[in-house]
Specification:
16 strands; DUF1996; five-stranded antiparallel beta sheet; alpha+beta; globular; DUF1996 domain-containing protein; 350 residues
């Protein structure tokens, strides 16, 4: 074999050296690529911090709340902290020159049905009460609350009054007799004019019982009275009266008109309300509201021994009221009729 020239040998050595250097460089690069510790991702840190901050703010902002009192139960219900926003009142009209200056508006609410139910005194207990005659809201039963009343309809004029009114059923010779006259007056009487001027609307969802279903005698606990339509000479009594033939026996019952300003009900369904004292509301019940007067006229007359209420004698007459007037309708009538001492009809106008 011929010897390799020196110049070619040198070139081969140089090439081999460069190849080895390239392999080493590649290995170092690969090692740096696959075995260097990973750097943290800024986006992951930022997301975690933001989530923690958001959760913390949500917890701080969430107020502590307590369960509201169940409407229609015998547990006292406080006035709600927030109520449905009432629509703006219409502009106030001037008082007509011929207006009768009596603080009054009315609702005519015919009889709807009879049930042995009482959603105020015996809520959610159908059949547990003595027989009641209901007026106004057509849906009233043992399970009624403000939500169910506001979804129903009414026999009242005005139709806007979705309130429920009920009394013990009158029995004549053992048979139920319903009134043919059913007027519910809202009045400003019995207090001074300055108290009338600051009278406020009855609160939405208010429940009141007036009279004494358990009375054992016609004593001071009996707020109701009986009289005869078109026979005033007979006089009024806390028990049934003997009305002449051709007349009608009628029942009057006044509800209290001073509210304690916080409770929609109370354990006895009376203590959150008070009657006025010396023409003003007492300090314990400082909020004047319209007085509800219930006037019922029955097509019956004659010997009162034939009469009985489902709760007992005539002096056990009592009335229950569950206020479901829309707030705007009630507020407009109090402003225009009660506060200004103007007699208004069912439409809320003189």
């Amino acid at each position: 074999m011929s010897p390799v020239p020196t110049s070619r040998l040198r070139r081969r050595v140089l090439i081999a050296t460069l190849a080895v250097a390239g392999v080493v460089a590649s290995a170092v690069t690969a090692n740096a690529m696959f075995f260097s510790p990973p750097k943290p991702r800024p986006s992951a840190v930022s997301t975690t911090t933001t989530a923690t901050t958001t959760t913390s703010q949500h917890r701080t902002a969430a107020p502590a709340t307590s369960a509201p009192a169940e409407p229609g139960t015998s547990v006292p219900a406080a006035a709600p902290a927030t109520t449905k926003a009432a629509a703006p009142l219409p502009p106030q009209e001037p008082i007509p020159p011929n207006a009768v200056r009596v603080a009054e508006f009315v609702a005519e609410c015919p009889f709807t049905h009879r049930l042995p139910d009482d959603p105020i005194v015996m809520p959610n207990l159908p059949g547990a009460s003595h027989l009641h005659s209901f007026f106004g809201n057509v849906s009233t039963n043992a399970h009624s609350d403000i939500a169910s009343l506001e979804k129903a309809t009414s026999t009242c004029s005005p139709k806007a009054d979705l309130s429920s009114y009920w009394v013990p059923t009158l029995l004549v010779d053992g048979q139920p007799v319903e009134p043919t006259g059913t007027t519910f007056y809202y009045l400003g009487e019995g207090v001074r004019d300055d108290v009338i001027a600051r009278t406020q609307p009855l609160p939405y969802g208010l429940r009141i019982v007036a009279g004494n279903a358990k009375a054992t005698a016609p004593d001071g606990s009996t707020q109701s009275r009986w009289s005869c339509l078109h026979a005033g000479h007979v006089g009024a009594s806390k028990d049934f009266v003997n009305c002449p033939a051709g007349t009608m026996i009628e029942s009057y019952l006044d509800f209290p008109q001073c509210w304690n300003g916080k409770d929609l009900d109370s354990p006895d369904h009376k203590s959150h309300m008070s009657y006025p004292v010396a023409g003003d509301c007492p300090a314990t019940h400082p909020v004047p509201v319209p007085k509800l007067r219930q006037v019922l006229r029955y097509p019956a007359s004659g010997d009162p021994a034939r009469f009985k209420l489902s709760s007992g004698p005539g002096f056990t007459m009592h009335g229950d009221f569950f206020n479901a007037w829309p707030q705007t309708e009630m507020a407009q009538r109090v402003r225009d009729c009660i506060n200004r001492i103007v007699k208004c009809g069912p439409n809320g106008r003189p």
